[in-house]
Amino acid sequence: MSTYILALDQGTTSSRAALVDKSGSIRHMAQYEITQYYPEAGWVEHDPMELIATLNQAIQDCLEQANIDAAEIAAIGITNQRETTILWDKETGQPLGRAIVWQSRQSQSICTELKANGHEPLFRDHTGLLLDPYFSGTKVKWLLDHHEGAREKARQGKIMFGTVDTWIIWHLTNGQQHITDRSNASRTLMYNIHTHAWDDELLRLLDVPAQMLPAIRGNADLIGSVQKHPLLIDGTPITGIAGDQQAALFGQACFQSGMAKNTYGTGCFLLMNTGSTAVASQHGLLTSVGWELSGQITYVLEGSIFIAGSAVQWLRDGLKIIQSAEDTNEAAASLPSSEGVYVVPAFVGLGAPYWESEVRGAIFGLTRGSERNHLIRGVLESIAYQTRDVLTAMEADAGITLHTLRVDGGATANPFLMQFQSDILHVPVQRAAQHETTVLGAAYFAGLGAGFWKDRDELAQYWQSSQDYHPQMDDQRRQSLYEGWKRAVHAAMSF
Ligand SMILES: Nc1ncnc2c1ncn2[C@@H]1O[C@H](COP(=O)(O)OP(=O)(O)O)[C@@H](O)[C@H]1O
Ligand SMILES: O=P(O)(O)OC[C@H](O)CO
After folding, report:
1. Residues 38-80: pLDDT tens digits?
2. Known binding-site residue numbers
3. What share of the chain is helix, strand, coil (3-state, %, to 5)?
4. 342, part of any domain
5. Which of 12, 100, 126, 403 has its CA 20 to 30 A from that of 424?
6. Could you tell me the residue range of the domain that residue 483 belongs to?
7. What is d(CA 63, CA 187) in angstroms, rounded to the nearest whole number?
8. Which residues share a beta bridge with 304?
9. Residue 320 backbone phi and psi in degrees, to 5
């Protein structure tokens, strides 16, 4: 009997596998950390083989915990860190070096040159993105430029490109399927969000051969089936894929236009469902595909914040002023305010809505009385302020006012941060009862594709809030705190 959907989430810091049952609950989950490589300043890389090995370990643990046979898996759903770029040899399956991670800046000079040649408006119009090293396109070009003969081999169809979803599917299907989905494709800088195909004009500018690109599918399509996998049964269907932020939006049941979620992990990713309209941002946000279901495209507006929870990790591992991320709650709450201290955590530049890749982090407002807790509080507040920057831009772009923000991700475990977030936005914040909304979203896509669940209405019933935070701060204080943040950001940018 098929009792579970197996959902795989290959993220920036870890690989997870989860078994989700008919009631939409995660029954078992396992997680393995992956190694981060920093070969040069601003570069971040992963070992593609380790991504697969850790996923397999997680699958094995999950099956053991559940004490089930792999035959009980009805279908598989995949979600992944987006934009991260892998090239591999079609014959041997060997990757060309490491995966270039979304945070990595090694293709900055390619972006600068394309911008200098006036190409940014074209990229922006066709892809909904910007010329920033964040996205896959310039990473692919960089890899082809740095591996001798790779471009020619790619032209001959011997080298393949994939984001992490594509790489996982290649492995699950024993090299039978070279496929991505629209949500991942729409983060590559090579996909046209209006024609819904790879864009030849952009491929020419990037000098990327079309032969190396995967086929594109809808999010709950039958993508392929498992072949010769050490843990899974041959023929198990793969019926869902989505980039992790779109999967989290889906897992949060934000199915209606105007609904939004924010995920507080390594970075923060605020996504709003804009329905069938691709809203072109005038305020530094990105337009991407949320999902395609039954041939219907849903678009999203996205604000990508590069540093959020990773600034908390910096307090722990860099400054060593906390033992664990949880310590930040008590430290911040012990003060009546940050007393004018602002931390701008622009460690890898600033993403939305500023897109300033050269700016670096700064601390403002220190006095002789400033101490550890001010810094900790400043870091947590910076997460909330950056979210307000993005939400303000989003409301202006979409022409709507948000009534509630659904939240998920590791840092939502911090009550101080969640209350401050609600205060600074002046919007209620609802923490999802199922915290693992990303993996859940992948399961939902796969389950819809496999007929495990009937429709989105059924899934919407499973959503619950575990905690609601309501705004308590008076308008004047909110305004003056936020104005201080804006001054701090602009001072950092002009440094
Ligand atoms: N109680 C907490 N307060 C603040 N930040 C936290 C807390 N718990 C975890 N975090 C932060 O959340 C992040 C982990 O969240 P997670 O959703 O697992 O991220 P990712 O999916 O990006 O790996 C870490 O950067 C960590 O510093
Ligand atoms: O793996 P996460 O959760 O840090 O998400 C990474 C994003 O997909 C990058 O765009």
Report:
1. 999 888 999 999 999 999 999 999 999 988 889 899 999 999 9
2. 12-14, 16, 82-83, 134, 244-245, 266, 309, 313, 410, 414
3. 35, 25, 40
4. yes
5. 12
6. 253-432+464-494
7. 32
8. 269
9. 55, 40
